[in-house]
Design brief:
heterodimer; A: Helicase, Ruva Protein, domain 3; 4 domains; Small_GTP-bd (chain B)
Chain lengths: 902, 205
């Protein structure tokens, strides 16, 4: 959410692709597990590049992993690069123009250095110029994502601009402190300074450097020779007959070039110190040089000042951007004239193009929903060429699985071409959306998707509908920006559905994450070894590993840190296996924001799994499971009787369901669907989910014996999650709240303060029931308050439709002395035949007519056995929704609710 | 083999007996308990086998001469904290496989504790097997074969080094247990039951 990701503006979405190097087959790491494919290493690292947000660095929009170790990168792109711009615009190839470019490139480099990396890939092709003449580094993340090139088989960078020491020693060496080859690879910022010098020198001299060398060997030799020269700049000028041109350049520019081309990397200055070079005396910095970490909630007093500075910088940027370079190539030549016209029109009427005001990531998301597919585009534009499979077969394969021959040559180089993702179909798809819809007015009540027809269609359709998602994104963007002040509105909107684009933040909002999230996380000790480390270490490499992000080394490292942070910050709780699974959805959604993942995890456990991670949690879990048994009996007596008869108790299968809130049972995509609703509900909703799950499988379970039942759950069958979600809400709504009461649940503020209530009201509330009692009973207990509430509802409803039948099972004498209004007397001793069926009579008929409604069995707490026995007999007769009055009819004495039946 | 064996024949009598045994797997986490079961029951191996929470249940039948032995296998969670659940699973078990990882000395120590607990708490006639898993990683071995073997002999345990990955000794260890189990008639159940199970798990030995 914060900082906002860059807007599309006049940029294109460019796609490029390359191959990660493949491991030799069957090779294993030191833990016996197969080596992580390099494409996954790259994929995991590349995520962080999306955090980069600087006017002189092209935005990384998305990264995909394809088949055969292919990586596809989607990045902000412009059709003009430095080389083209120098040829086209005299003002850019002028000395001041070049100095301006140098200044902007340096700013980009400094930002990257603070971010913790270098580009190692600087060339005129990778310096793009946007229509306002601003330099934007392109493809600068290659060094970072490939871990200094170790995950690819091609060399990074173009030889003629590469620093001599890189050519000599390779780029995996480390520039600053730390060790090379690991995740701490930072590279040496001075390498880029050399490259910048070469790029600028070339532009000043107006020649391509070392043009005559065709062989790579020759080029390398030339670069090394330049590096060995006492004065590399003079050497370059001499060998390219450009001494005159160089002498024509201002002294400051020449001095700058000389400094950049310092042969010894130790003496060469860093980008940051070069910003103070006299050449840039009159120039100002375009934007802050320090990366701003993502921040949620957006409103945070500590950030206001930065925000303000940013805002001012933005304003001045907008002013600067006033003019577009004349005749700038806004659209590729290859577009058909019709499309071209359309696009030019759209771009010319910049004021009206709402899409350019949206962030690139959002536009790309919508583009995909509109049917856009990067792989298809790459194929269409010949960047991916499919070959007949027979041509790719290897010629020799040894027993160990290693192959030789075949066509692997394409992996050896980096394809420098970028293609442009055509946005016209998305634009025309959204053309009719009125401009004011892009700025939804958030009033107290409505936020405006209700008028769309799509809003009444099933979720799967809504999730794939471009226009609907656009509206949802616009609405939620507004609401989330106003979080926590609009928390209620976020919740009520999320009840409709959750747009996947903002799921991570919506979840955080639903969980009520607030405060100094980043600071809190930063202060936690995530490094010091603890006794839990081995367990975390063995659990992570098997937690949702089908997912590319979570299986990447970056994913594992983040997993470890978030889990360790949670363990260290909850000293009264401990790590139970399963906590890893619980962490997975949050980490997946907040991969670039560990602090938020941690905050969400903590809040989630606090609400839904209160006390579950105590060192001794057996009382908590046993109570939960007992409640689950009661819920099955309450909602599905037939199933409950069957499971009871075969001894299929929840202890044997439901512990992972509840302990991990289903994250150990279902894949991530299903969990998202489930949790979208779970997070909206009370802490008791998960019990209802479990009932809904059983209900979906009831047909099978009813036929199965013990072994088949447990086998069914050992390997969870395919579940229609949308139905489970629907059913669980229905189950929740038809369950009196006290039925799911647990003494170990998190006390809410109201329940906490029961003590101030008069004794008569306190009697009516649910209190803790001992585990032995819970387990000894098959039907749930219901509180007096819930019964009164349900009876009241009955009186209110128009047709007198009863939701509830009160059955007083005491003797008729006791009944006559006082009972609840509308209670029916069915003395326990006379109600059932010896075979257990209902003895015929008017009351038995009435009872049968209430099958399906809530049947509350009421008796005395002094004869409790009678009450539970009665309820269980009804359960055997497959009466659903049977419950017993908690603490007996005596609870109503003080409140005066009892009447003498007429 | 199951089909050819006693499955088609009625139970009882000297021939074609069907015996059902409850077997439990115990051991430190990530030593490969679930992988051993998966290899034995389905012939599969997953590099990233998920952790087990609570316990998992699987069945498999093997044929031994003229007896069909059906294992009901309880695969338990390894983390020490789940210890309190373990008795629920090993109670009434006729056999147990205690697993350790040959590349990790600590897991061997933990295996010894499990053996002690079983000897104290489980049924007196329980057949205990010790499995040194991950034998394919012999170059990272930390527990010597002889050390484990001596320990197994002293405690009269069956012992094998296994590899769920290469399937080495996996079936063998279950077969060895089957051989050692007493096969009296009161273990026998109907053939029909057995066929359903065989059909469900899909694979037989």
């Amino acid at each position: 959410m914060y900082p906002a990701s860059p807007k599309l503006g006049l940029a294109h979405l460019g796609a490029s692709t390359f191959f990660a190097s493949a491991h030799p087959s069957e090779s294993c790491g030191s833990n016996g597990l197969p080596l992580t494919p390099n494409s996954i290493r790259i994929y995991g690292r590349a995520r962080a590049l999306q955090l980069i947000n600087h006017p002189h660095l092209s935005c990384y929009v998305d990264i995909h992993r394809g088949k055969h170790e292919r990586i596809r990168v989607i990045q902000e792109y412009y059709l003009l690069n430095l080389k083209g711009a120098c040829n086209k615009y005299p003002e850019i190839r002028s000395h001041t123009g070049l100095a301006q470019i140098a200044h902007q490139v340096l700013q980009g480099l400094v930002y990257l250095n603070t971010f913790g990396t270098v580009t190692c890939n600087l060339s005129p092709q990778n310096i793009l110029l946007d229509p306002h003449g601003q330099a934007k580094l392109y493809n600068y993340g290659l060094y970072y994502m490939t871990e200094a090139g170790s995950a690819v088989s091609f060399p990074l960078g173009i030889v003629r601009y590469t620093a001599p020491e890189v050519l000599l020693h390779g780029a995996s060496q480390d520039g600053g402190g730390g060790s090379g080859g690991t995740a701490t690879v930072t590279g040496n910022p001075a390498w880029d300074v050399w490259s910048l010098g070469m790029v600028l020198a070339e532009a000043v001299m107006g020649y391509q450097l070392f043009e005559k060398c065709e062989e790579v060997e020759g080029l390398v030799a030339e670069v090394l020779r330049t590096g060995l020269a006492a004065e590399p700049l003079k050497h370059l000028a001499k060998t390219h007959n450009s001494t005159q041109k160089l002498d024509a350049a201002p002294q400051e520019l020449r001095d700058f070039l000389c400094t950049c081309l310092t042969p010894d990397p130790k003496d060469r200055p860093m980008p940051r110190s070069l910003l103070n070079h006299p050449l840039f005396r009159t120039m100002t910095i375009s934007a802050p040089l320090n990366p701003i970490l993502p921040h949620f909630p957006v409103i945070d007093p500590s950030l206001c000042l930065i925000d303000f500075a940013q805002y001012k910088a933005k304003l001045s940027e907008v002013e600067n951007k006033g003019t577009v370079l004349p005749d700038y190539p806004l659209i590729p030549n290859s577009d058909s004239p019709l499309q071209a016209n359309h696009t030019t029109e759209v771009i010319k009427s910049e004021q009206k193009d709402q899409l350019s005001e949206r962030s690139m990531r959002e536009v790309y998301h919508l583009w995909q929903l509109a049917g856009g597919n990067v792989e298809q585009e790459l194929k269409k534009q010949k960047l991916i060429r499919t070959k007949p499979a027979i041509l790719t077969l290897p010629s020799v394969m040894v027993v160990e699985g290693e192959v030789f021959g075949g066509d692997a040559s394409h992996q050896q180089q980096l394809e420098a071409t970028t293609i442009i993702l055509p946005l016209h179909s998305l634009r025309s798809r959204l053309a009719h959306v009125a401009a004011h819809k892009y700025y939804p007015l958030i009033t107290q009540r409505e936020c405006g998707t209700d008028d769309l027809e799509t809003s009444r269609l099933p979720l799967v359709i809504r999730e794939r509908d471009v226009e609907y998602q656009l509206h949802r994104i616009l609405t939620f963007q507004r609401l989330l920006q106003a979080y926590p002040y609009k928390a209620d509105l976020v919740k009520s909107e999320a009840r409709k559905d959750t747009p996947p684009f903002y799921r991570s933040l919506i979840w955080a909002a639903l969980l009520g994450v607030d405060g100094a999230v980043a600071d809190t996380y930063q202060q936690l000790d995530k490094e010091t070894p603890t006794l839990t480390d081995r367990q975390i270490e063995v659990d992570i490499p098997r937690c949702h590993q089908y997912d590319e992000l979570l299986s990447s080394p970056q994913g594992h490292a983040k997993f470890t840190r978030v889990l360790k942070a949670w363990v260290v910050s909850h000293p009264h709780l401990v790590y139970w296996q399963g906590l890893d699974s619980l962490c997975a959805p949050f980490l997946y959604l907040n991969f670039n924001n560990e602090a938020l993942a941690y905050a969400c995890l903590s809040r989630f456990i606090d609400k839904y799994l209160h006390k579950f991670f105590l060192r001794d949690n057996s009382a908590v879990i046993q109570e939960y499971l007992a409640k689950f048994s009661h819920m099955i009996a309450f909602h599905d007596p037939r199933l409950a009787n069957h499971l009871h008869s075969i001894g299929f108790i929840p202890e044997l299968y439901a512990i992972p369901w509840f302990l991990t809130m289903y994250t150990h049972v279902f894949p991530l995509q299903k969990i998202f669907l489930l949790w979208d609703t779970l997070l909206l509900g009370e802490a008791s909703l998960p019990l209802c989910v479990a009932v809904a799950l059983l209900r979906q499988l009831a047909d099978r379970l009813l036929q199965f014996g013990f072994n088949e039942c447990i086998l069914l759950f050992s390997d969870m069958p395919d579940i229609d999650m949308e139905r489970v979600v629907r059913d669980s809400v229905q189950v929740f709504c038809s369950t009196p709240p006290s039925v799911t009461f647990r003494q170990h649940q998190r006390p809410t503020s109201e329940r906490d303060n029961n003590s101030h209530l008069p004794q008569s009201s306190q009697d009516l509330l649910m209190t803790g029931v001992s585990l032995a009692e819970l387990k000894g009973e098959q039907c749930p207990q219901v509180s007096g308050a819930d019964l009164l509430e349900l009876s009241a509802q009955r009186r209110k409803s128009r047709r007198g439709l009863a939701k509830l039948l009160l059955v007083d099972v005491r003797t008729s004498e006791e009944f006559a002395r006082g009972t609840l209004p509308e209670a029916m007397n069915m003395p326990a001793d006379f109600t059932f035949t010896p075979e257990g069926s209902l003895a015929p009579g008017p009351n038995a008929e009435l009872l049968t007519s209430y099958r399906g409604k809530i049947i509350a069995v009421i008796g005395s707490r002094n004869n409790w056995g009678q009450v539970t026995e009665f309820a269980e007999k009804l359960l055997v007769l497959e009466f659903p929704r049977v419950c017993t009055l908690h603490k007996g009819i005596e609870v109503f004495r003080a409140s005066g609710a009892l009447v003498v039946p007429s | 083999m199951a089909q050819r064996g006693g499955a088609q024949r009625p139970s009882g009598g000297g021939q074609g007996k069907i015996c059902q045994f409850k077997l439990v797997l115990l051991g430190e986490s990530a030593v490969g308990k679930s992988s051993l079961v998966l290899r034995f029951v389905k012939g599969q191996f997953h590099e990233y086998q998920e952790s087990t929470i609570g316990a998992a249940f699987l069945t498999q039948t093997v044929c031994l001469d003229d007896t069909t032995v059906k294992f009901e296998i309880w695969d338990t969670a390894g983390q020490e904290r789940y210890h309190s659940l373990a008795p629920m699973y090993y109670r009434g078990a006729q056999a147990a496989i205690v697993v350790y990882d040959i590349t990790n000395q600590d897991t061997f120590g933990r295996a010894k504790t499990w053996v002690k607990e079983l000897q104290r708490q489980a049924s007196p006639n329980i057949v205990i097997a010790l499995a040194g898993n991950k034998a394919d990683l012999a170059n990272k071995r930390m527990v010597e074969y002889e050390e484990a073997q001596t320990y197994a002999e002293e405690n009269s345990l069956l012992f094998m080094e296994t590899s769920a990955k290469t399937a080495m000794n996996v079936n063998d260890i279950f077969l060895a247990i089957a051989k050692k189990l007493p096969k009296s008639d009161n273990n026998a159940r109907s053939c029909w039951m057995l066929q359903v199970i065989t059909f469900k798990t899909g694979e037989t030995m």
